[in-house]
């Protein structure tokens, strides 16, 4: 039984890494969509209740981690009131899906970070929608003893956003 479980874990891990797409570099248009942003509001999707008890963190800690990294990079974190008043209503959306694999000591995770802001249709500029203009993500598996490392994976993906943001909004320029 133990051998079958180990084999299953190896197969799942192999398939995950085989089919996991690496984060693609942002396109010029995606990076250009960050130009002129004065800040972002951070929104973190709620984690599923049944998984929260198995994690050493929650969505509030993820939000605080993200807000701290943005602030340290010189990117203003907007309050909800500021976001509403900011052209485009920009918010950085963090979606974290975590599932335990078959009652085993490993977790599957999927992290998506995207910037959502107001966009207009070319054919009808009167139609204003919220759309994703920049995104990155990663999928993987991690053992119980390393699940806290998911916070570092989020930070690594957030660093990509920060680098892209700063490439079109250098510090000191307003």
Q: What report would you give on this structure?
A:
The protein has 174 residues and is of the alpha+beta class. The chain has one domain (2-168): Rossmann fold. Helices cover 38% and strands 29% of the residues. It has 6 helices and 4 strands. It has helices at 2-19, 28-32, 49-52, 59-72, 80-85, 150-168; strands at 41-44, 91-100, 106-121, 124-143. The chain has a 4-stranded mixed sheet with strand order 1-2-3-4. The longest helix is centred in the last third of the chain and has 19 residues, at 150-168. It starts with a helix and ends in a 6-residue tail after the last helix. The model has no long low-confidence stretch (mean pLDDT 87).
Identify the notable features of this structure and list them briefly.
four-stranded mixed sheet, 29% strand, Rossmann fold, elongated, alpha+beta, 174 residues
């Amino acid at each position: 039984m133990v051998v079958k479980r180990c084999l299953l874990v190896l197969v799942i891990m192999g398939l995950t890494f085989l089919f996991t797409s690496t984060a693609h570099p942002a396109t010029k248009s995606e990076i250009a969509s960050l130009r002129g942003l004065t800040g972002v509001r951070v929104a973190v999707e709620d984690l599923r209740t049944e998984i929260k008890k198995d994690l050493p963190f929650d969505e509030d800690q993820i939000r605080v981690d993200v807000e701290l990294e943005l602030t340290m990079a010189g990117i203003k974190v907007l309050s909800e009131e500021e976001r509403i008043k900011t052209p485009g209503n920009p918010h950085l959306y963090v979606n974290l899906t975590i599932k335990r694999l078959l009652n085993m000591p490993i977790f599957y995770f999927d992290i998506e970070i995207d910037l959502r802001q107001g966009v207009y249709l070319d054919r009808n500029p009167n139609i204003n929608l919220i759309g994703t203009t920049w995104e990155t993500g990663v999928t993987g598996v991690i053992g119980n003893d390393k699940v806290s490392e998911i916070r570092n994976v989020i930070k690594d993906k957030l660093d990509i956003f920060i680098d892209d943001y700063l490439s079109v909004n250098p510090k000191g320029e307003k």
